[in-house]
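Hi R.,

Here's the chain you asked about this morning:
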Amino acid sequence: MNEQAISLLQKILEQQQKQTGLLETIASQNLALIEALADGEEADPDAQPSTYLSGAPVLAGR
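And the predicted structure, written out as tokens:
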């Protein structure tokens, strides 16, 4: 291979390594978010619903 091709391949490799690092960061942050959501308070099963099955809000006092 000539020097120009090698240089371009090295640049591509560097960018792919940066991209891989960013993707790993995103994956770990997503995992942390999922764990935080899983540890959140669960809804009270005895509480009155705030929406109907259609998704329309339940209006208080009506």
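Residues 15 and 21 are 10 Å apart (CA to CA).

Let me know if you need anything else.
M.
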